[in-house]
Design brief:
This protein has 670 residues and is an alpha+beta fold. It folds into five domains: 112 residues, Immunoglobulin-like, CATH 2.60.40; 173 residues, Rossmann fold (3-Layer(aba) Sandwich), CATH 3.40.50.410; 94 residues, Immunoglobulins (Immunoglobulin-like); 75 residues; 174 residues, no CATH class. It has 13 helices and 39 strands. The strands form eleven sheets. A seven-stranded antiparallel sheet has the order 1-2-11-4-3-12-13, with no helix packed on it. It has a six-stranded mixed sheet with strand order 7-6-5-8-9-10, with helices on both faces. A five-stranded mixed sheet has the order 15-22-21-17-19, with no helix packed on it. α2 runs parallel beside α8 and α6 packs parallel to α7. The longest helix is centred in the N-terminal third of the chain and has 17 residues. The chain is elongated. It starts with a helix and ends with a strand.
Length: 670
């Protein structure tokens, strides 16, 4: 099937190449919706056609007919001398006789037609580059050298155009006259070339680059290179005769044939989008295709300032008014109604008219009935483009009474290929608010984190190598870091605060030990508050010795267990594996509990607090500055694995703690 499709493209393009032709390039959107472009029209002999009236042109964009505003062609100029470099592909695939004929014949026609005083050089490339002939005015010598090119090796466009020692640009930049490169190839490059560098180097040295592809469509990199350096590309050339005519078209353009100009009236769109333009000369039955991205500056929209509303900490039954400036951009808008998705949000007007660039101030009101998170989508019904503004309110950490957040895609019916890219979308929060995205390959038994910080109601996701037909996805809003809320990270669910229990899971009491001498070197379970102060326990939880952690009666509540060393390592790896940063991602931000400076982001709402430590011989130390956390993993008879984090670093340090000491505990769900 692939071969057949390629043949169709080849055959269709060849029909046009045998006769007259039209090429359109350098599309200019700076005056959008007026579009300007350059074009060349050539007759069958390669001569430029300049006398086409605007009434003979037809332009359509994405199938919609447009009005042609003007067509202009300047008078022809005397031919100027050229410093041209013929860059010839000698890769192995060029070994077919008709391809070598195309190279040889097109080079011969080019060299023979060079204006007086012009100089020409020839280089060749495969996986390296070669000087076939330095700049010369000896046409006989140049033709002889061009005829000697043979096929060999791979295809490297960097070697062709920019790499030392013998690339086209390095050769052309030494030319004395107008500098032109004509590159011919029959295949795609083995890897993507350094397109931006090639363009910049060519522009810096006033080099026009033309590209001719034999039997295949021009790759996008060469379209970009030719159009941005002032040259052109010619694709799907199939015979030596077509190649000769193509080189004569390039000669016509390069020696003084300035391109003609055309302009047409486009239309304002509701979003920046790719526009495919079809340009035809009706009397000559020739056409060309070109595409451009409609500029964001030309999008018709209602512009809101501020662009969204986030109204935090407004007490219930307290009305909050906010002024929003609404401006009509690039079109006149007639607003017939404004719909609010939540009755606790309202607006003072529901219909009005705005001329282009005209503004109005609207009063948005928020009257919460409780402190939970709430969301609203205002939809402006109008005759131009869909327009919305989002609002949210509530106290940080307070969950919504009504769930509004949900996934739009995936919706349960899709099949994704491993390694492909897709876009996850959702709604129910302000676009600027961050959400957590996760997926499951076992019907929700375990969850894998995609990201903690997706926003803008969409996220590009690279589908992982995890084949399954029972996949789920979920989105969770970051409405603030609620104290002791479960923390989902990778396939783990962690407790959101330090453990604060005084009984084992079976109901047996755990002894509280206050006196230093009773704590020192104790080898049975014990707990304490920092400085034996119950008020500290309400904030930081309890400090346990490792014998409480390891007791078979179970320190963690039912359904949970004390995190092992391996589980702490998995947590660190899931957060980036850079231990110099992970601690900061776990710590509560600010200096309410942590001593200044506190290097913290708390980006997964782990809310880690500095509960300090009780040494194995009894004293307390470092509350507000350090936290030490047990793992359930023993090192030897005296030491066990643990983790330490300090206020002034984002580092998390894995090490061993004496089992007699008192440290904090975090649990993982079974």
């Amino acid at each position: 099937m692939k071969i057949f499709l390629l043949y169709l493209i080849f055959a269709i393009s060849a029909i046009e190449a045998l006769g007259q032709s039209l090429s359109v390039f350098n599309i200019d959107t700076s005056s959008f919706p007026v579009i300007r472009a350059k074009f060349f029209a050539f007759d069958g002999s390669g001569n430029q056609i300049r006398n086409i009236p605007s009434s003979d042109f037809s332009v359509s964009e994405n199938g919609q007919l447009r009005t042609v505003l003007s067509v202009f062609c300047s008078l022809p100029k005397p031919s100027s001398a050229l410093s041209s470099v013929l860059v010839m592909d000698q890769s192995g695939s060029m070994g077919e006789s008709k391809k070598l004929d195309a190279i040889h014949e097109s080079a011969k026609s080019w060299i023979s037609a060079l204006p007086n005083r012009s100089e020409c050089a020839i280089t060749a490339f495969d996986t390296d580059n070669y000087i076939v002939q330095d700049f010369s005015t000896d046409k006989k010598l140049l033709i002889q050298k061009a005829q000697a090119i043979k096929a060999n090796g791979g295809t490297d466009y960097n070697k062709a155009l920019i790499d030392p020692m013998s690339s086209g640009i390095l050769m052309a930049k030494t030319g004395k006259y107008k500098r032109v490169i004509i590159m011919m190839s029959d295949g795609l490059p083995n890897f993507e070339p350094r397109t931006a560098q090639i363009i910049n180097e060519a522009k810096a040295n006033s080099i026009l680059i033309y590209f001719v592809s034999l039997g295949y469509p021009s790759p996008q990199c060469m379209k970009d290179i030719t159009q941005q350096t002032g040259g052109q590309y010619f694709e799907n050339i199939s015979t030596a005769e077509e190649a000769k005519k193509t080189y004569m078209k390039i000669m016509q353009a390069a020696t003084g044939g300035d391109p003609c100009d055309i302009s047409w009236q486009s239309e304002v769109n509701c979003q920046s989008t790719l526009i495919n333009a079809d340009i035809k000369v009706m009397s000559l039955n020739i056409s060309a295709n070109a595409s451009y991205q409609s500029p964001s500056s030309g999008v018709a929209k209602l512009e809101f300032s501020p662009s969204y509303l986030i109204l935090k900490n407004i007490p219930p039954s307290t009305k909050k008014d906010t002024i929003v400036k609404v401006t009509a951009r690039n079109a006149d808008f007639n607003i017939t109604n404004i719909n609010s998705s939540n009755t606790i949000f309202s607006i003072d007007q529901s219909n009005f008219t705005l001329k282009k660039d005209q503004s109005i101030n609207l009063t948005f009101s928020f009257n919460p009935i409780d402190s939970g998170y709430c969301y609203c989508k205002f939809t402006f019904d109008n005759d131009v483009c869909p327009s919305v503004i989002y609002a949210s309110g509530g106290f940080p950490g307070k969950k919504p009474n009504t769930q509004t957040l949900h996934l739009l895609k995936p919706n349960g019916t899709e099949v994704f290929l491993i390694g492909s890219d897709t876009v996850v979308t959702w709604e129910g929060v302000v676009p600027e608010e961050k959400v957590r995205l996760e997926y499951s390959i076992d019907s929700g038994k375990t969850w894998v984190l995609i990201t903690n910080s997706a926003s803008d109601l969409k996220y590009k996701w690279h589908v992982p190598k995890s084949p399954s037909n029972v996949c789920l996805a979920r989105v969770t809003a970051d409405v603030g870091c609620g104290i002791c809320d479960d923390v989902y990270i990778g396939k783990q669910v962690w407790s959101g605060c330090n453990l604060n229990v005084d009984h084992f899971r079976n109901g047996d009491s755990i002894p509280e030990v206050r006196i230093e001498s009773q704590w020192a070197n104790r080898t049975s379970p014990a707990w304490c508050y920092y400085n034996n102060d119950p008020a500290m326990g309400k904030i930081y939880g309890k400090l346990y010795n490792w014998y409480a952690v390891n007791d078979p009666r179970g320190l963690a509540p039912a359904g949970w267990h004390v995190a092992s060393d391996a589980e702490w390592t998995a947590l660190v790896n899931c957060l980036g594996a850079d231990t110099s940063l992970v601690g900061g991602k776990l710590k509560e931000v600010g200096t309410v509990h942590w001593r200044s400076p506190n290097v913290a982001s708390n980006e997964i709402c782990f809310n880690l607090l500095p509960g300090g430590i009780r040494y194995g011989h009894g004293p307390f130390d470092n509350v507000n500055a350090v936290t030490y956390l047990w793992t359930a993993s023993s090192y030897d008879s005296v030491w066990a694995w643990g983790n330490g984090i300090a206020n002034n670093f984002a580092l998390i340090r894995r090490g061993v703690l004496t089992k007699y000491g008192g440290s904090s505990v975090r649990c993982v769900k079974n």
